[in-house]
Design brief:
Layout (H helix, E strand, L loop, with lengths): L2 H13 L5 H31 L9
Helix pairs in contact: 1-2
């Protein structure tokens, strides 16, 4: 599930009086897990990009 979709579901669940607290907690946990995964992937992508910034090898 995408982080945007999870965020939308999470916001809707916050104001939904018919949902149990356990259901809301589960949605919050899924949202946080998706956010952590996205942050980790972003850090890897940024680290990879930083390593390959030069098109030319360094010369002596």
């Amino acid at each position: 599930m995408s982080i945007a979709r999870t965020a939308t579901i999470r916001e809707a669940a916050k104001s939904d009086r018919s949902m149990s607290n356990n259901e809301k907690r589960q949605i919050a946990e899924e949202f946080n897990a998706a956010r952590r995964d996205l942050q980790a992937a972003s850090q890897v992508a940024m680290a990879t990009a930083a390593q390959s910034t030069s098109m030319y090898p360094r010369s002596l």
